[in-house]
Specification:
Blueprint lengths: L1 H15 L6 H21 L3 H4 L14 H7 L1 H7 L3 H4 L15
Length: about 100
């Protein structure tokens, strides 16, 4: 919830100033906005995910071998990864990335 409130304080001024006041403008800035959120989530260990999900309650046996390995405590500690490192695009559509010609 706190993340949504923070996002509102960033997005409302952008809408008022016209930076993202249309779908087209929002899409043009979608990657920039997403990267800002991903950076914040990396910095806070994906706290938004942990509000509902806990590694301690995950049934690793019901996951694929690959997912279970990624969710293991050993790997997370060794790699320093958090949810957002693998799960970008889960809650929102990923921004399209255009390559330079």
């Amino acid at each position: 919830m706190a993340r949504k409130i923070k996002a509102t304080f960033k997005e409302v001024p952008r809408k008022i100033t016209g930076k993202i006041n249309t779908k087209e403008k929002f899409e043009a800035h979608r990657l920039e906005l997403a990267e800002s959120v991903w950076s914040a989530m990396k910095a806070n260990d994906s706290q938004e995910c942990h509000n509902c999900h806990a590694f301690e309650t995950m049934d690793l046996d019901s996951q694929s071998k690959s997912a279970a390995k990624r969710h293991s405590a050993e790997r997370r500690l060794q790699k320093g990864e958090t949810c957002i490192d693998c799960h970008k695009g889960i809650a929102h559509t990923l921004p399209s990335v255009q390559s330079d010609p």
